[in-house]
UniProtKB/TrEMBL annotation:
Mg(2+) binds at N9, E380. Belongs to the acetokinase family. The keyword rRNA-binding does not apply. Pathway: Metabolic intermediate biosynthesis; acetyl-CoA biosynthesis; acetyl-CoA from acetate: step 1/2. The gene is ackA. This is Acetate kinase. SUPFAM superfamilies: Actin-like ATPase domain. GO terms for molecular function: acetate kinase activity; ATP binding; magnesium ion binding. It comes from Glycomyces paridis.
Length: 394
């Protein structure tokens, strides 16, 4: 493996990791610790074809990363002997400052901490992983790669909200966008599949996982994206509402006395497909809809309709698209969602090949379709490793 990078994605109660070759972007080893801080944490570790699962009490992120080091010692190459060039960390919010990956020092750590007000659910957990890894691997560069960075090119017409100037100037209120590493990777791959340079093509990427966003990529640069100040805006997601009239928040506050913290939780954790269909997992929603469940049927319709509206808007924003790429858990696996999302876009140049779509692609439009539609598996960890390798080379 050349230039291996340990990619770490620390959530509030989970740690995902991959050992990625910075050249080929292939992962030789990967794993996940779930329920960090609870009495029964689960560590799943994969090395090649070998998969091990262990239950233990992992009290915090420090204990979690120590368990990761131990797992590498038991299965695969110990990290100390792996020739690591860096530990790379996914950081959700980079604000206006971090538009590129950066080597972490105390000052960068403090800046990521200050950005926690914009991403209270994510940045503190990301930072915890960085702090622990700096202690555990003191001689290795720790690199932060930001989910927002790819969207730094979104112009003012798309990133400014029409709100009071003091909100924008003193409180950082603007569209930042997220899933940047995925949108960057998938849009590049889509260009590759078209046999063109990324700078020659316009691509719309629909990243449809538990979190979901659509991005308009003009000649390799993000020019609009559906998530905003936070990951709440845009598409209907597993538990997030996506776009709503902001006055709903005030209405519910006045009508029920619910606090803003409660309403924040309701829109982030109790809305989306969970609220509409009673289920987060799209496979379960699809099965229920198939079985005649009316709530599941309408939830699917709403889910697809929102994607379709964004795709239509982004074809307009781009002045025409060369490709639409579907990615992430739902985008890569659900032929039904892809077909539903593209439903009436024929007039805009989308001709779906139903058999190719049912077979999962990679190209799912007809040969003559003005816009090529494709399924592109994302590789966020690979992209983080690639950006880390590029940063350290310069
Ligand atoms: P991600 O956040 O990218 O891991 O995606 C998670 C989502 O992908 C969940 O809502 C899963 O239900 C969904 N998913 C995974 N496999 C399938 C499938 N075969 N059909 C529909 N949805 C799927």
């Amino acid at each position: 493996m050349s230039a291996p990078v340990l990619v770490v994605n620390s959530g509030s109660s989970s740690i995902k990791y991959q050992l990625v070759d910075g050249e080929t972007l292939q992962a030789s080893t990967s794993g996940l610790i779930e329920r960090v801080g609870q009495s029964e944490s689960i560590l799943t570790h994969r090395h090649g074809d070998e998969r091990t699962e262990r239950t233990a009490h992992i009290a915090d992120h420090a204990a979690g990363l120590e368990a990761v080091v131990a797992a590498f010692e038991e299965h695969g190459t110990p990290l100390a002997d792996a020739g690591l060039i860096a530990v790379a960390h996914r950081v959700v919010h980079g604000g206006e400052r971090f538009v590129q990956p950066v080597v972490v020092d105390d000052e960068v750590e403090a800046a990521i901490d200050r950005l926690s007000s914009l991403a209270p659910l994510h940045n503190p957990a990301n930072l915890e992983g960085i702090r622990v890894a700096r202690k555990l691997f003191p001689r290795l560069p720790q690199v932060a790669v930001f989910d927002t960075a790819f969207h730094a090119t979104v112009p003012e017409r798309a990133h400014l909200y029409a709100v009071p100037a003091s909100w924008r100037e003193d409180h950082g209120v603007r569209r930042y966008g997220f899933h940047g590493t995925s949108h960057a990777y998938v849009s590049r791959k889509a260009a590759e599949m078209l046999g063109r340079h990324p700078k020659e093509v316009n691509v719309i990427v629909a990243h449809l996982g538990n979190g979901a966003s659509v991005t308009a990529v003009e000649r390799g640069r993000s020019i609009d994206t559906s998530m905003g100040l936070t990951p709440l805006e845009g598409l209907v997601m597993g538990t997030r509402s996506g776009d709503i009239d902001p006055a709903i928040v005030f209405h519910m506050h006045r009508s029920t006395g619910a606090s803003f913290a409660d309403l924040d939780d309701a829109l982030n954790k109790e809305s989306g497909m969970l609220a509409l269909a009673g289920q987060i997992d799209m496979r379960v929603v699809e099965a229920a809809a198939e079985g005649g469940d009316r709530a599941a049927q309408i939830a699917l319709e709403i889910y697809c309709y929102r994607i379709r509206k964004y795709i239509g808007a982004y074809i307009a924003a781009l002045g025409g698209a060369d490709a639409i790429a579907f990615t992430a858990g739902i985008g890569e696996n659900s032929a039904e969602v892809r077909a539903g999302a593209l439903g009436s876009l024929t007039a805009l140049g989308v001709r779906l090949d139903e058999a190719a779509n049912a077979a999962g692609g990679p190209v799912i439009s007809t040969p003559g379709s003005p816009i090529t539609v494709m399924v592109v598996p994302t590789n966020e960890e690979g992209e983080i490793a690639a950006q880390t390798t590029a940063l350290l080379r310069n």
